[in-house]
Specification:
With 331 residues, the chain is of the alpha/beta class. Helix content is 40%, strand content 15%. The mean pLDDT is 92.
Length: 331
Amino acid sequence: MAAKIAMITGITGQDGSYLSEHLLERGYEVHGLVRRSSTIERSRLKHLYNDPEVYSRKLFLHYADLDDPTTIRRIVTRVAPAEFYHLAGQSHVGLSFEIPESTCDTTAIGTLRIMEILRDQPDPPRFLHASSREIFGTPSVSPQDENTPVNPNSPYGCAKAFATQMTKIYRESHGLFFCNAICYNHESPRRGENFVTRKVTLAAARIAAGQQESVSLGDLDACRDWGYAKDFVNAMWLMLQQSQPDDYVLATGVSHSIRELLEIAFSRVSLRWNEHVNVDDRFKRPADPYQLLGDPSHAESQLEWKRSVDFQQLIELMVDSDIERIQRQKH
């Protein structure tokens, strides 16, 4: 029996790397679209493409940019995936205020280009678009579910809202198995260092190791619904195994503040966070959504989705990983 074929955009990112592992463990043949750059360093996938039993046998990487639909079409037609996971795009909310045009081009129009390519295939694959809780912006209700009105307040949120609505339109108008995973914050040791959770856990580890003295942050009272990236990619896979396509909010349903994040991270290394944290207004967003809290009940009931760690376990896991990374670098 031939292996099921999946294609992933954003395969070198946090979610893409975990999803690759998840699919490979289930016997998939995995194809990833990657941007050509001056460096081939892809740290999150290094363990996979350094494995001769995996790379070029079960895992394949193809060069393609989201603004190059001709190349993407050629690859999709040749590979003929059964499932397509679209995770790529400029995903830093704060940065989207600095680069709004490129954020909208990759996140909004890039998604539309991919859907047009998939619609034209003889046997269109099941498609998952990684949406974001940022589509709700400053919400009128809390918690938010799949029926909460979109009201973005950042260029990134606006671009994601467009892509999310278009995914729904293609599902309903063309009868395609297209889904939105409306993801709330999800973190892991593979999270980029410019995201606040990883910035904090890495700072705690480095301060404990004597490599830095302090860390600068913005609004310490800002709250987020933070989950574990590995749990989220499991939900994404489950979404494409259902009998009918649908949209799902992926969240924990519990909100935590930056102060709580600091308390857990610095306690893990036996330090007092308030002795090492500087508040810097430069890190505060022009418009910050305070009441973003997801209701995951639809995913929990329909997908039978369960999370493996709580917030404290997640942050401690990240701190421990950063400590191990620092220790490896010393040797």
